[in-house]
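Hi L.,

As promised, Max-like protein X:
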Amino acid sequence: PALLMENARKGSVVSRANSIGSTSASSVPNTDDEDSDYHQEPYKESYKDRRRRAHTQAEQKRRDAIKKGYDDLQAIIPTCEQQDFSIGSQKLSKAIVLQKTIDYIQFLHKEKKKQEEEVSTLRKDVMALKIMKVNYEQIVKAHQDNPNEGKDQVSDEVKFNVFQGMMDSLFQSFNASISVTSFQELSACVFSWIEEHCKPQTLRDIVIGVLHQLKSQLY
C-alpha cells in the first residue's frame, strides 16, 4: 500500500507539471507568426518621402530638358559643329555653346540687315528703270506721231560745244581754288569750291555766257 500511494503521488505531480507546461506554452506569444505577418505587411510611404521622390523626378526632368536644349543648339548652330583646335576633341561646354549661339545670332542679324539694304537698293533700281522705260516709250511715241519734228533740233556738235564751254569755265575756277598739298586740304577746298562756284545762279551765268559765245560763232 505504501508503494501504491507513492506511485499515485508521482503520477499526480507529473500530470500537474504537464498541465502547467501546456498552460505556459499557450500563454507565450507566437513570435514566429508575428514576424512573418510583419514582413508581409505592405510598406506605407510617408508624405515626406512622396514629396522627396516628386522633387527628385522634377529635377531630373528639368536636367533632361536642359541637356536636350544644349544638344539641339549644337546641332543647329554651324560653328558648334566645326572643329575647335583650342579645345581639341573635348566636348563643348555649356558656356561655349551659348557664346557660339550668341555670335551666330548676331551674324544672322547683320546678314538680314545687309539683305534688307540690298533689297531696298534693288527696289529703287527697279523703280528708276520703270520711270526710264515710261519716258522712253513717250519719246518713241512722240517721234512716231511727228516724224519731221527733229529736223530743226540742235545738233550733237553744238550740244558738245556747250558742254565743253561749261566744263572749261568750271575747271578754270576749280584749278584756281583747289590745293592738292594734302588730302585734308583737298577735301576742304573741294567743298568750298562747290559752295562758291556751283550755285544755281553761278551755273546759270556760265551757261548764258557760253551760249552767247556760240551764238556769235554760229551766226
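The two ends are 193 Å apart (CA to CA).

Thanks again for sending the construct details.

K.
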